[in-house]
Amino acid sequence: MRVAFASSSLASTQADLLVVGVPADKVADTLAGLGDFAAAVVAVAADEEFTGKPGSTLGAPTYGRISAPRILLVGIGAGTLADVRAAAGSAGKEGRARGAKRVAVAFPGTAVGSPELRAAIEAFAEGNYKFDKYKSTGKKAAAESVVFVDIGEDAAAVARSLALVSGQELARDLVNEPAEEIYPESLAAVAKSLESDTVTVLVLDETAIREKGMGGIYGVGKGSVRPPRFVHMTYTPKGESKGHIAFVGKGVTFDSGGLSLKPSEGMMTMRCDMAGAAAVIGAMKAIAAMAPAVKVTVIFGAVENMPSGTSYKLGDILTMYNGKKVEIHNTDAEGRLVLADCLSYATELKPDALVDLATLTGAAVVALGDWYSALYTRSDTLAGTLTARAGEAGEGVWRMPLPDLYKDKIKAEYGDIKNVGGRAGGSITAALFLAEFTTLESWAHIDIAGPAFLDAALMHYAPGGTGTMVRTLARWAESVGDSSSK
Ligand code: BES
Ligand code: MN
Ligand code: ZN
Description:
Elements: E1 2-6, E2 17-23, H1 27-31, H2 38-47, E3 57-61, E4 70-77, H3 81-98, E5 102-106, H4 115-128, E6 145-149, H5 155-176, H6 184-192, E7 199-204, H7 206-211, H8 215-221, E8 229-235, E9 244-255, H9 264-267, H10 275-290, E10 295-305, E11 317-319, E12 325-327, H11 335-348, E13 353-358, H12 362-368, E14 372-377, H13 380-393, E15 396-399, E16 417-418, H14 426-435, E17 443-447, E18 453-454, E19 464-465, H15 470-482
Parallel strand pairs: 1-6, 2-4, 2-5, 5-6, 9-10, 9-13, 12-16, 13-17, 14-15
Antiparallel strand pairs: 3-4, 7-8, 8-10, 11-12, 14-17, 18-19
Helix pairs in contact: 3-4, 4-5, 5-10, 5-15, 8-11, 10-15, 11-14, 13-15
The chain binds ligand BES, manganese (II) ion (MN) and zinc ion.
């Protein structure tokens, strides 16, 4: 997708679809630029009771009265950042539904240099995304260009936003691809393909994983004919560096539950269980393109969790990378075992901050639904930073407690700890489990099980992978790189 800027009246703008953002109760004023077609559209809007309420839309053909063959009015209410984002998302979605190659958008408030402009570019692309690779018929083309009408040029915003878009779309594609396409080796190969003059990628195979003592990754992976991989990516800025941040992702390319097999309904979408790894890979792609002045480490363990004669078993005791012994009570609580080794390894690198992303628990979905990811950290500073960056990116995170009081729930009879903590507070006890594998003060865990994959469309997002947290993480790196001190 390209982003262009045109200075033309609404009536003369060349596009397959013209989208006009309408502030609340400003229909006639906003549409004045349609010239002698304005009165007709204002009349239709009145008839359809379209007044510019946020989230409302009204589409109509233009019968040659203006250059664009179709117009879409989208309400932007009071014009907040969230309103603009939602409107741009609707524009992208409508453009895709109609196969519009060139979409022109006129949104009040998206001035050069404004956060609204970046939000509009990013949300338009989100709305325009649809995974239709495996459809034989009825495909609609993605937009080739989105053209902002009459606001001047903002090349810097375009470059940064398109970097985020490409990272997020990579994450969405990786999640949407079937598990027969994306398995540990192929996921590691995608990471490897991002190698460049600033990005290095180290991949460990199953033998190396075992030799390194990564008992969590090895144990979960050994039931599958697809061997596990451990991946360590490093982005090093060319000039000065203002610090070092590290991202860890859960890369379970398919979660059948293992011997604690999931029922079919629960297993249906479990190709999404590598969404954490997909997000950190996508963030790395975006960061490499934006080139911020901060070192960024990305680590993920890629495994397929399968039942077989070689699977890890209930009652097994796994020795983890940091030496802790974990008693297995349920092979479906596999993500925390994979993450644990990654977190201990990442801790050795002494980053200034460490954040892991994981589709870790059904309990997080029950608690917070499809929009909010559950954020766990003992650092108020890191909680504040991540919440702020997520707010700018338009992604939902909600901080949850990480109380020592519940640690008893993961005490084991034979090993040091067990891998399940019971139904109550299941997302919290999973986070407490992870906390056993890093000594970093500045560590956060984000359970993305709800937002990572949508069973049905939500706002402007199509069903399937969302690429959640790619923009939050990449914007975080961007802001650390921009800051004058660490
Ligand atoms: N991958 C799942 C969690 C999940 C559930 C992600 C729904 C996305 C949507 C995870 O590995 C899992 O199976 N968790 C179990 C843990 C339990 C056995 C302690 C769960 O949440 O039921
Ligand atoms: Mn599981
Ligand atoms: Zn899982």
